[in-house]
């Protein structure tokens, strides 16, 4: 297929790693890790079974042969990255042609020569040289302002207009130097620049450099590449200023000033100038314009978040959303103005061309070659914007036509399907139905009342709802709807009881805190009986975090086991939180006790609790080799593994999963929920650590640092930060997802 694998995008703003692949037609495609592995192992072509085995080994999760074939057929073949074996002449994949993209492109300097020149110039990016150049630019600008001569230079141009040709020529040369700066910065960072060319951007002629390979660099290397063109413009300005000081030429002064105005223009982030790419690389999102549609769809009230938005990290998501809200109104207004002013632009363009033709005729009669050249260049400069406007409007028209066709085709398919259903209904004999019988069953909310939009519970939507006297109801936000969905999942009914073991291989990671918070979340939002058992043999403190100390413990329950025949009797042995109604059975912290409970004791205890509680959370000790903890794992339906947001915490968690897989608990590992407990402000797990646990377990959730959980005393759930409560609901929903899948316990 002639594919070139550019590697992972460094410093990406996406939650998951992404990879770049260059097709034979130089189109670059961004892929997820799984799709990238499929492409790597399917090139050259090999049987699907071999591809599935190779991808499974590299990805860390099993990918079936059917899954490989599905990904190839639905995702990779349309992108032109994999060719079906039966296709003798595969269709050439269509290139992406965004509305705001270069058109009418032509190559000025091939990739091989660009790399050669960039290698020779790369020492210019040595930091001391860059610093000296920037200082020299400030000194040069001060010298120009103090020295004057600007108006004399302007008068010189008005006196001999044909000398403006030299300014045009020098600005064109500086534009080429600008592109060499991008290529050289790319090469200096260790990537390979491509060709340098020229095309039309919107309505203007523009040069470009292919620096796609810079995505394999880190964020600093990519930003250096973006700024490389402006840096070479700085060097050009310094050369012009030195030449002006040496010769006194006003043309050189005007060119130096005009070039600096162009440098400021390049920093505009609205369209694909250097400023746009700088913002894109700072955010870690390769193509900001491709996110415009998803962001706008996600901002619609009551609509779910588009996957192209949810895949962004929170900071990148806020950054991209702000950029879209700024750019869309500006570009929409510019497009409306362009369409509205099109007749006048065409008319003025025709008049300008006619005037330059007249100038050319007069210059021809006088044999004034510079004036003739200036007239020809002026005609060309007038034609290029008109051609650019035509291309932009043509692309806009074709894009709208394609969208309309797709919409009509979908409607036609829906109409045909409905007609087929009606015709089949006519062909089939009418079913024998009994006449409807009216009864009290008709008196339901769904039948008697129109569906009601739930009122918002937070944010500006709630303010509007309450401020309008509950007349205007904008509905819940996408975040609130997601919270409702998570709450619905965690309320999944339980057949019998469920046992959830909260464990950690390392002490001091907040295991007891997570047990308390998770149990409280279940108790508050489910409404059925939830109990947390302090199964830490080394005098755990779970009960002290819920209510004042209780004088009865697990040891008392086991001693009186035969006498506990009802929930009311068992309730005498447990503490209960006033707010969440979570019950806790305390461990024995009597210093006179010299022997811990064993696995048989916990087995008898759990069997008793099964009779009276729907959900049992077991807060274990840290010794995975302890007989009691192994017995609790044997009793578990689900585990919650708590780790720290650091390398040592991740290693301890991974070792715990390794041990479980080696000792017959692989099913618990595959559906485990990993909780990364951030114990300080801003703590977050390393990306590779998160990916490791995501591949091995069902869900990975980070609980942000919260001062209310750090006190080690009675914990009030209402004092937690909203983000903390949301993360706990996320954990509870992931745990509850297995309640139905497992079915009733035999």
Looking at the structure, what is the overall shape?
Answer: elongated
Helix vs. strand class = alpha/beta
**Strand arrangement, largest sheet?**
9-10-8-11-7-12-13-14
Low-confidence spans? 86-92
In the CATH hierarchy, the architecture of the largest domain is 3-Layer(aba) Sandwich
Reading off the top of the CATH hierarchy, the class of the largest domain is best stated as Alpha Beta
- The span between the termini is 54 Å
What is the number of independent domains? Answer: 5
**Mean pLDDT across residues:** 78
CATH fold-level name of the largest domain: Rossmann fold
Instruction: Tell me the Rg in angstroms.
Output: 35 Å
Sheet having the most strands? 8 strands, mixed
Helix-residue proportion: 40-55%
Under CATH, the homologous superfamily of the largest domain reads: P-loop containing nucleotide triphosphate hydrolases
User: What is the count of β-strands?
Assistant: 14
Q: What is the beta-strand fraction?
A: 5-15%
SS summary, helix count: 26
Features:
746 residues, alpha/beta, 8-stranded mixed sheet, 3-stranded antiparallel sheet, transmembrane helix, hydrolase, protease, MinD/ParA family protein
Structure description:
There is one protein chain. By secondary structure, this protein is an alpha/beta fold. Helix content is 54%, strand content 10%. It has helices at 33-41, 48-59, 65-76, 111-121, 127-147, 150-159, 164-189, 219-247, 250-266, 274-283, 292-298, 307-310, 314-366, 369-427, 445-448, 459-467, 478-490, 511-526, 554-559, 567-570, 599-610, 627-635, 647-662, 666-670, 687-696, 722-742; strands at residues 4-8, 18-22, 28-32, 102-109, 196-201, 204-209, 498-503, 530-535, 575-576, 583-585, 615-620, 638-644, 673-677, 699-703. The strands form 3 sheets. It has an 8-stranded mixed beta sheet, sandwiched between helices. It has a 3-stranded antiparallel beta sheet with strand order 1-2-3. A 3-stranded antiparallel beta sheet has the order 4-5-6. It is elongated. Mean pLDDT is 78; it is low at 86-92.
């Amino acid at each position: 297929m002639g594919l070139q694998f550019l590697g992972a995008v460094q410093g990406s703003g996406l939650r998951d790693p992404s990879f770049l692949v260059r097709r034979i037609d130089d189109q670059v495609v961004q892929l997820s890790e799984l799709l990238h592995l499929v492409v790597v192992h399917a090139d050259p072509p090999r049987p699907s079974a071999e591809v599935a085995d190779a991808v499974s080994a590299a990805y860390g999760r099993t990918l079936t042969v059917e899954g490989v074939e599905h990904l190839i057929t639905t995702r990779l073949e349309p992108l032109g990255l994999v060719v079906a074996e039966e296709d003798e002449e595969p269709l050439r994949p269509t290139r992406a042609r965004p509305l705001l993209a270069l058109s009418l492109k032509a190559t000025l300097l091939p990739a091989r020569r660009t790399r050669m020149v960039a290698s020779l110039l790369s020492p210019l990016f040595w930091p001391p040289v860059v610093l000296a150049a920037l200082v020299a630019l400030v000194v040069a600008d001060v010298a120009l302002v103090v020295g004057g001569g600007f108006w004399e230079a302007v008068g010189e141009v008005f006196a001999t207009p044909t000398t403006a040709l030299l300014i045009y020529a020098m600005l064109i040369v500086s534009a080429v130097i600008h592109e060499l700066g991008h290529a050289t910065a790319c090469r200096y960072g260790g990537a390979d620049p491509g060709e340098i060319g020229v095309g039309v951007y919107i309505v203007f002629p523009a040069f470009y450099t292919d620096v796609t390979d810079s995505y394999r660099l880190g964020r600093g290397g990519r930003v250096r590449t973006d700024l490389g063109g402006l840096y070479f413009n700085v060097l050009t300005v310094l050369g012009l200023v030195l030449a002006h000081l040496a010769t006194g030429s006003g043309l050189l002064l005007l060119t130096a000033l005009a070039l600096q105005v162009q440098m400021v223009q390049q920093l505009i982030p609205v369209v694909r100038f250097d400023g746009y790419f700088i913002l894109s690389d700072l955010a870690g999102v390769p193509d900001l314009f491709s996110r415009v549609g998803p962001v706008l769809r996600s901002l619609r009230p009551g609509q779910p978040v588009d996957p192209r938005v949810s895949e962004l990290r929170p900071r990148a998501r806020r950054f991209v959303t702000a950029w879209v809200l700024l750019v869309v109104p500006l570009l929409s207004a510019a497009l409306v103005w362009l369409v509205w002013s099109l007749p006048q632009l065409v008319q003025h363009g025709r008049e300008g061309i006619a005037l330059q033709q007249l100038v050319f005729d007069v210059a021809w009669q006088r044999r004034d070659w510079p004036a003739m050249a200036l007239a020809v260049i002026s005609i060309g400069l007038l034609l290029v914007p008109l051609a650019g406007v035509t291309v932009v409007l043509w692309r806009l028209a074709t894009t709208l036509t394609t969208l309309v066709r797709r919409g009509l085709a979908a409607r036609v398919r829906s109409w045909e399907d409905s007609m087929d259903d009606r015709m089949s209904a006519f062909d089939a004999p009418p079913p024998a139905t009994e006449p409807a019988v009216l009864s009290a069953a008709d008196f339901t909310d769904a039948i008697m009342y129109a569906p009601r939009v739930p009122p918002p519970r937070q944010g500006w939507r709630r303010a509007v709802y309450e401020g309008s006297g509950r007349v205007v109801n904008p509905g819940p936000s996408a975040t609130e709807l997601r919270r409702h969905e998570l709450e619905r999942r965690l309320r999944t009914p339980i057949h019998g009881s469920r046992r959830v073991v909260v464990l950690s291989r390392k002490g001091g990671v907040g295991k007891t805190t997570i047990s308390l918070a998770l149990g409280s979340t279940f108790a508050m939002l489910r409404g059925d009986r939830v109990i947390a058992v302090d199964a830490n043999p080394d005098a755990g403190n779970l009960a002290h975090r819920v209510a004042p100390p209780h004088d009865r413990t697990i040891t008392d329950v086991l001693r009186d086991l035969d006498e506990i025949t009802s929930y009311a009797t068992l309730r005498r042995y447990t503490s209960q939180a006033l707010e969440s109604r979570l019950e806790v059975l305390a461990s024995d912290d009597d210093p006179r006790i010299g022997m811990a409970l064993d696995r048989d004791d916990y087995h008898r205890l759990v069997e008793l609790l099964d009779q009276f509680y729907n959900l049992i959370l077991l807060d274990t000790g840290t010794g995975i080799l302890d007989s009691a903890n192994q017995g609790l794992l044997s009793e578990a339906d689900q585990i919650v593994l708590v780790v720290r947001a650091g390398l040592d915490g991740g290693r301890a968690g991974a070792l715990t999963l390794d041990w479980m897989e080696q000792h017959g608990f692989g099913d618990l590992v595959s559906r485990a929920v990993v909780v990364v407990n951030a114990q300080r402000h801003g703590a977050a797990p390393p990306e590779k650590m998160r990916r490791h646990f995501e591949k091995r377990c069902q869900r990975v959730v980070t609980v942000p640092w919260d001062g209310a959980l750090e006190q080690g005393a009675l914990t009030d759930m209402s004092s937690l930060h909203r983000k903390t409560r949301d993360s706990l609901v996320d954990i509870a929903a992931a745990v509850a997802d297995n309640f139905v899948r497992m079915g009733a316990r035999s």
